[in-house]
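in:
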């Protein structure tokens, strides 16, 4: 059952009101890039691509999941274009870390490039922590503090502070 769900989520073909699996959609966007569809935005057809799929859940908890995904990508002929790095799955928290890294003028490419060698099947959270987890983006930190204050006030009957 779980493998069938993974197969549909990542690789289902388009049709019947379905947009297609996530990897299939991503691979189609890379095909469009290679065809020059994004040159008007300054993206060269030959640009190196590091595919990232952002999810709500931790879908690749172990290296075996990435190995399975790589094998299925090859079987379906997806993400096999020239200049495409290994696909990575990012939970929302990891996506936030990637955006914080960018905000600090860090390099996402150097982080994602680490998956092209011995770290190919490593989870993104491992690479982020090894590289030095960036602090939260300031607006997320402010929102989190405000939400925490409101929750604590409701739980313990404390008056909400005016922040």
């Amino acid at each position: 059952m779980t493998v069938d769900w993974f197969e549909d989520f990542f690789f289902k073909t388009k049709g019947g009101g379905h947009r297609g699996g996530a990897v299939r959609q991503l691979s189609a966007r890379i095909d469009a890039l290679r065809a020059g569809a994004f040159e008007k935005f300054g993206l060269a057809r030959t640009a190196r691509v590091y595919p990232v799929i952002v999810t709500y859940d931790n879908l690749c908890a172990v290296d075996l999941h990435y190995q399975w995904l790589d094998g299925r990508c090859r079987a379906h002929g997806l993400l096999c274009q020239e200049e495409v790095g290994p696909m990575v799955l990012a939970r929302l928290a990891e996506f936030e870390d990637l955006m914080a890294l960018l905000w600090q003028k860090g390099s996402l490419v150097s982080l994602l490039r680490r998956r092209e060698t011995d770290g190919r099947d490593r989870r993104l959270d491992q690479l982020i922590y090894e590289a030095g987890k960036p602090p939260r983006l300031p607006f997320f930190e402010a929102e989190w503090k405000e939400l925490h204050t409101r929750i604590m006030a409701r739980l313990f009957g404390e008056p909400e502070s005016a922040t």
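note: The longest helix spans residues 138-156.
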